[in-house]
Structure formats: C-alpha cells, structure tokens
Specification:
globular; Creatine Amidinohydrolase, Chain A, domain 1; GPI-anchor; about 15% strand; metal-binding; 3 domains; Creatinase_N; about 675 residues; binds 2-acetamido-2-deoxy-beta-D-glucopyranose; alpha+beta
C-alpha cells in the first residue's frame, strides 16, 4: 500500500498521517445545468486537450483511457510534470483518478476534494463522488462496449492497482491495454521540464556506510535468501538515493531524483537522467570498478529495455518490493519462476534501521529544528494578543526560522498552520483566502518540518494563548497522555507498532473521544518526511533498535478546534529487571507542550515522571544549543516552559530524606563520640 492509500484506510474522513494539503480557497462552484453553464474563473478549459487525447486514443485503438494522479515511483509528492490528472481535468487535489472515453470524461475523488473539484473543473468533466476501483470499473462496464480496449500507462499503476482493475474488468470481457507511451504527455505541449539541478552526493560527515558497503550488504541478503534471487530491482525514489548516498531536486519537499536501479550479484545498473550526473559524480560511482563495484550509468528511460533484456538470460530471478514497483516493470518479469516478491525491497527494510551516524545526525537536526519551533511559539505568544498575525504569517515565520539553521534545505512538507475550526479540517493548510487571524480566543495547531542535510523533521504543537475551556484542557491532556503512554512503553524487540497503537488512544477512548488518522510514520535522514515501512499501521514492519518514527495522536472537534501532539522518537534499548532484548522510545523532538492545556490531575505518576524527565532532557540539550546560538530570550522562554511538574512533591521528598540523613548522621556522631 502506498502512502496515499494508507491515508484512506478505513475512513474517508482520512485524516491520514500524510497531511497532504488542501487549499480550500474561497470562490464559487461551477453550475453545468445553468444556460449557459456558469464557470468560475478557477476552472480550466479542457476542450482542446480532451479533443487531442481522444484522437490519440483512437489511433491506439482504445475506447477509454485511465489517468491516475501518481508518478512512476508511486511517490507521495509528485513533480509538476507528473501532474497529468491535474492537466487533463483542471483539478489539482492530491488524490483522484480520471477516465476519458470517446464521449465522456469523469473524475473520481474522495469527499475531501469535492468542493475543490467543482471549482476547478469545466463542464466537460463529471464528478464521481467515490474513489474505489470497483466504482470506476462498474462505470467502465456500463460505458464501454464488450471487447473494447481500456488503455492505461503501466508506469502509473502499482501491481495492486492493476490487479484490482483486471479482477473486475476481465470477467466483463473488457481488455486492459498497457500503453507505456503516456497519451497525456503526447498532447501536453507545455509539460514542465525536470528541474535542471544536478544530483548531489552527501558529504562524508553524514555518511557511515559508503555506497559500496550498502551494495555488498544488499548482495549478502540476496545470497542468503533461500529463493536465490540474482537481482534486486529498485523503483521507489528513496531506494536508489539511499543506496548511492545521492540526493536530487526533482520532486517538491523530498530531495529525490528520477531513478531506478537494477542490482545484480556482479553488476550495478543505475537509470537516471545522465545529464544530471557531473564528472565528479561519475568518478564517485566508478572509482572501484576493479572490485565488482562498478556502476553502469544508463538513461532513465532505458529501464524497460534493460530489464526485458535481463529477463532473457537463463537462470535469473528478480527480487522486487511489490508496494513500490510499477506495473510497467512488473509485467516484464516473466515467467513466474523468475520473480521473487516481498512487500518491501531489502533496501527499504535495511534503510529503516538507521546506522550510528544517521542516528546521531538525525538527533542533531532535531535540536536545531527545535530552536526554530521555540522561536515560533515564543514570537506568537508575544504578538498574537496584538491581533495582527494570521495562519499564513505564522507558517511563513517558522519557515524563516528554520532557514536560518545550519544545513537547512527548506520545509519537509507544506506547513499546517491552523486556528480554531480550521484545525479540525483534515489536511488543512492556509491560503490567502482561508487564513484566519490568530487570537487569544482560539486554539492553534502547527504541524511543520524541515529538511536538513543531516535529517528530516516533523513536529506538531497545539497551543492556546487565552483561557482554554475545561473540555479543551481535558482533550489536550488525554492526547498528551496517549503520546506519553506509547513513548514510555517497554516492549520486546520485533514488536509491531500496530500492537501498541491503542495505547495512544486509550486515554481518549475512556471518555468516548477518538481520532480518525494513523498514529505515526517513519522519518528519514534528509529524505521523505513520511518514510515507509516504519510506523504503527498493520502493514508496517516490526520495530527494531535504531528506527525513528513519529507518535502523533490527536483529537478534532468539528467546527470548533483541533489538537495534535506529534513528536519524533528513536527506538533504543531498555534495561529491564529480568529480560534481555527489550526496547523503548526516546523522544528526539525537543519542544515543550503548552502548560496551560495540561491538567496534571488526570495524569498518572508515571506519566508525570516521564514528562519531567523529558523536560529535563529539553533543558539540557536545548539549553546548550540556545547558549551556543546566543539566543538568551529563547532560553529564558524554554526554561519557563519546562519547569518540572513534580518539583514541589519531589523537593519535599528530598528535603525530608536529607533531614532523616542529617538526623541519622547526628545520632551516629553522638554514638561515636
Ligand atoms: C444551477 O442553475 C440552475 C439553472 O439556472 C438553477 O436552477 C440551479 O439552482 C443552479 N444550481 C446551483 C447549485 O446554483
Ligand atoms: C473552451 O475552448 C474552446 C476551444 O478554444 C472554445 O470553443 C470554447 O468556447 C471554450 N469554452 C469556454 C466555456 O470558454
Ligand atoms: C482494436 O481492438 C479490437 C479489440 O481488441 C480488435 O478487435 C481490433 O482488431 C483492433 N483494431 C486495430 C486496428 O488494431
Ligand atoms: C565506469 O567505467 C566503466 C568501464 O570503463 C564504464 O563501462 C562505465 O560506464 C563507467 N561508469 C560511469 C558511471 O562512468
Ligand atoms: C497572498 O497574499 C500575499 C500578501 O498580500 C501576497 O504576497 C501573496 O502573493 C498571496 N499569495 C497567493 C498565493 O495569492
């Protein structure tokens, strides 16, 4: 399951973990039954592009063409040049599928996007308020005559997507026709180019394992595998980037570049846009050719030809991760005995466990990132009562603060800065039209993150600058209790996140509250902010030492407020009285929670102890960092917000203990004398 599927799991409320952004800009909706039709200025006239597409469809002998909203790597963020669904329909939401027949054009999308679709599509397009593949195939069965072909670009279909279409269409005698030459691209004359940026190699200071070591490690997993694969095919963009310690700039927010890798026991074929590879990088990839570590550079588009060619060799077997391999490559791996599948490739499962350097630098990145978030919260506390700031200006401010930190590489996703009822909307990010003024009367939620050369961050804090209601305090405290309950859990190595996920909900469930999204996701080292396959879902892999995940319970009251508390944690060994090989979480996000919203009377002693220990860590690490950066006002703010909750009782306990000791010592002295 790809990320976008994940956020639709179970519910179309779909407050997924991905928080893809919706700009619910103001403006009116189209009215296609008015005469003439009413079209707001936000719609795109798609008449000519549809006409051109239909001509191509006829020449390819298909009577319907499916246009998914994804790219060939099933990426979470797609580049503008991959926004084919948006180009054809005008609709720019992040989830949907378009289908064009010779006389109709229809978009399927979920409830988050219905209003947006009505504002952006012209009357050439119908809107189907559904997203299931069976709804699309039912429609096709009604609209397309038997034995006609339905065309699709196999690069834009996951294996699972293809199988769902095929399962539903083949019994109806409709034929799916794979057309690797994308028909939208043929009519998209001003399709955006790939950004001109060259690939970069990570500096040595952030790398522990060279690409040669990683290649050997993956090859060892191949030879150790009982099914004896001879090659691994890498399709997700972070897989190739990780293997070679390279980064690029081809998609927004993620430092990825278009690529595939075919790694065999003695060859390495890297498919990229070769003009983006500098001479220096070629040397980097070619300096160890004498050791069977020799990268053959091939053009990105050659991957199918190469794979097809490799499949003609006898005795080969290609190992793929089915979650990220597109159907265009999968369909070439035949016959079946030449195929080995697992949900995730060995690269994704290996990458999930950070090495010591990656752990250290990812922690470091979170220290600098916390400076930026502390600066935001401190500033808001000061300026919100003046009544001039908005969701937009706050989002801008935190991005500015991050950009001043060392090794900053921009935001890791579009900042969610949401006040009052806006915070209760799934996936909300402010735009000029929707941005609310920040006031002391509303709760405010900010979910943001940064890319740094050493790490990727993601943190959410919810605050109130005035007087919260009892309900708001209780809900916030229970969300915090959920965060703490997971964070302080000690568990045997290899436990799955899904088996402890309810700890994040328990305090909410007790009073009949809940949240409609996932509880956490992996994060990377200057990589994706939602890094699979780590997390708390049933299809995530078991937790091991050295993995990083977010923990992010929440609570949302429609038309009123939204609460989410998100921290990134690293999995570390736990020392238990009897057992070995137990693990726990250590929080690496270092920003205090809003004290005003915490009702300590609801919390257990253990929860308060955890909180005080966490605040002690913030004081230690952030104190040193804020000193280093000469930020005295920020340091004062941080100390004020991290005063221990249990200090009163603790110091009483300590002083009575020291009294006893003094008395004892005195008595001893007396006895001795
Ligand atoms: C669309 O236009 C028709 C005809 O003018 C009108 O009856 C209908 O109320 C309009 N629909 C909306 C949603 O405005
Ligand atoms: C859309 O473009 C076509 C072709 O240029 C034109 O004939 C048509 O009037 C336009 N439709 C609208 C609603 O502007
Ligand atoms: C178009 O496809 C149909 C159905 O598969 C087939 O019968 C027909 O021969 C094809 N026509 C051309 C020109 O390829
Ligand atoms: C490395 O050298 C080999 C042998 O000369 C050549 O085939 C290959 O294309 C080179 N690779 C790169 C990345 O320059
Ligand atoms: C939003 O408003 C600001 C300030 O008026 C302006 O600079 C900016 O371009 C606007 N952004 C958009 C997306 O309209």
């Amino acid at each position: 399951m790809t990320f976008s599927d994940w956020l639709l799991v179970g519910t179309l409320l779909a407050l997924g973990g991905s928080w893809n952004v919706i700009h619910a800009d103001g403006g009116s909706e189209r009215n296609c039954s008015a005469i003439p039709p009413y079209l707001p200025s936000t719609v795109v006239n798609t008449t000519l592009r549809l006409q051109a597409l239909r001509e191509d469809m006829s020449s390819f002998n298909v009577s319907a063409y499916i246009i998914p909203g994804t790219d060939a790597h099933l990426s979470e963020y797609i580049a503008p040049r991959d926004a084919r669904m948006a180009f054809m329909t005008g609709f720019t939401g992040s989830a949907g599928t378009a289908v064009v027949t010779l006389n109709k054009a229809v978009l399927w999308t979920d409830s988050r996007y219905w209003v947006q679709a009505e504002r952006q599509m012209d009357c050439n397009w119908e809107l189907e308020r559904d997203v299931s593949i069976s709804s699309i195939t039912d429609w096709l069965i009604r609209e397309v005559s038997d034995t006609d072909n339905i065309g699709f670009d196999p690069f834009l279909f996951s294996i699972q997507t293809y199988e769902s279409y095929s399962y539903n269409l083949v019994p109806a005698k409709l034929m799916l026709k794979s057309i690797p030459d994308n028909l939208v691209d043929r009519v998209w004359t001003d399709r955006p180019l790939i950004p001109p940026d060259n690939l970069i190699r990570l500096p040595d200071r952030v790398v522990e394992r060279t690409w040669q070591m990683k290649v050997e490690h993956i090859r060892t997993q191949m030879t150790d595998n009982p099914y004896k694969p001879t090659a691994v095919l890498l399709s997700a963009l972070d897989e190739t980037a990780w293997l070679f310690n390279l980064r690029g700039n081809d998609v927004p927010y993620n430092p990825f570049f278009y690529s595939y890798t075919l790694l065999t026991l003695n060859e390495i074929w890297l498919f990229v846009h070769k003009d983006r590879v500098t001479e220096d990088l070629k040397l980097y990839l070619n300096s160890t050719c004498y050791l069977a570590h020799c990268v053959q550079l091939l053009e990105y588009e050659q991957v199918r030809v190469m794979l097809k060619n490799y499949m003609t060799t006898s005795g080969v077997k290609v190992w793929i991760g089915t979650e990220y391999t597109n159907y265009a490559l999968y369909e070439l791996i035949t016959p079946e005995e030449k195929l080995l599948t697992s949900a995730y490739s060995p690269v994704l499962t290996t990458k999930a466990v950070k090495d010591e350097t990656e752990q250290r630098i990812l922690r470091d990145a979170h220290v600098r990132d916390a400076v930026a978030v502390i600066q935001l919260l401190m500033w808001l506390e000061k300026v919100v009562p003046e009544g001039k700031e908005t969701e937009m200006t706050a989002a801008y401010y935190v991005n500015e603060c991050r950009s001043k930190q060392k090794d900053s590489r921009g935001p890791s996703f579009e900042t969610i800065s949401a006040s009052g009822p806006n915070a209760a909307l799934a996936h909300y990010s402010p735009s000029n039209a929707t941005s609310r003024k920040l006031t002391v009367d509303e709760m405010y939620l900010v979910d943001s993150g940064g890319q740094y050369l050493d790490g990727t961050t993601d943190i959410t804090r919810t605050v109130h600058w005035g007087t919260p209601t009892d309900m708001q305090k209780e809900a916030f405290t229970r969300v915090l209790m959920g965060n703490i309950e997971i964070s302080r859990t000690i568990f045997p190595s290899g436990t799955k996140g899904v088996n402890m996920e309810m700890l994040g909900r328990r305090a909410l469930w007790e009073v009949g509250l809940n949240y409609g999204h996932g509880t956490g996701h992996g994060v990377g080292n200057y990589f994706g902010v939602h890094e699979w396959p780590v997390g708390f879902q049933s299809n995530n892999i078991p937790f091991r030492e050295g993995m990083f995940t977010s923990i992010e319970p929440g609570y949302y009251k429609e038309n009123d407020f939204g609460i989410r508390i998100e921290d990134v944690v690293v999995i570390v060994p736990a020392h238990t009285k009897y057992g070995h090989n137990y693990l726990t979480f250590e929080t690496v996000s270092l920003v205090p929670y809003d004290r005003k919203l915490i009702d300590t009377s609801l919390m257990s002693t253990q929860q308060l102890q955890w909180l005080d220990n966490y605040y002690l860590t913030i004081r230690e690490l952030m104190g040193a960092e804020l000193d280093r950066q000469g930020l005295t006002e920020e340091k004062k703010w941080m100390l004020k917000h991290t005063v221990p909750f249990q200090r009163a009782t603790d110091s009483a306990a300590i002083s009575s203990l020291s009294l006893t000791l003094t008395a004892l010592a005195t008595a001893l002295l007396h006895n001795l004398l």
